[in-house]
Target: Putative hydrolase
Amino acid sequence: MISLAQDHHVHSTYSDDARSTLAENVAAASARGVAVLRLVDHVRVSTTWVPEMLSAVAELVIPEGLTVETGVEAKILDASGALDLPPGLATHPGLGRVLIADHQFPGPAGPLSPRVVRDSLTTPERARDAVDTLVGATVGAMSQVDRGQLAHLFSILPKIGLTEDDVTDEHLSAIAAAALATGTLVEVNEKWACPSPRAVRALSDAGVHLVVSTDSHHSDDVGAYTRVPAILQAAREG
Model:
C-alpha cells in the first residue's frame, strides 16, 4: 500500500514557474499531515544555484512529524538518455534524488517539441518507433544518476498524439528492470495523472518502489490528491 501522506515532487520559487517558497511548502505540508516531503526544482546544465537551494533547505525549521528530502528535476535530452543536468550533480552527496522528466521528446540528436513529433507520426510504424525511442531514452537516463526518480512517466505521450495503450508489456518490463537495477523510484503523479493503472500495476508487481507526488507549483496543492487515489485503486482492482 502506497501512503498518500507523502509528496515526492514539490516545486518552490527556485523554479521559474513556481509561486511558493521552500518555507511555505513546508508549512503547507505540515498543515495537511504530510509525513514525507521532497522539495524539487527544475535545473538545466547551466544551473548554478543548487548548493544555495540545498543550504536553504538545511536551514528550514521542520515541524515535528515531517521529514523533508531534496531533489532536482532534469529533462531527458536525447535518445541515449542524456540529462539536462549540471556537471557533477548526479552524484552530489547532499542531493536526495534526480527526477527524470519527459518535458520534450528525446530525439536522436536532441530534444524535439511535442508538436514536431506529433506531426511526424503519420504511420503506425512511426508511432511504434517513437514509443521505442522514449522507453529506450528513459531506461538510459536511469543509468545516468545514482539516485533517480521517474517524474510523470509517459506524460509526453498525449502531447505527441499517443496514449499509454501504445506502450507494450515489454516496454513496461524494460522500465521496471532498469528501475530495479538502478534503485530508481517511480512516482504516480497528480498533475499529469500518470502513469496509468496498468503501468502502476505492472511496476508494482515487478517490485519497483512507487511513490506519490503532486508536482505542486503552489503550496495550496502540496499533498492534495484527487486523481492519484483513483489510479491506485484501479491498479489494485485491475
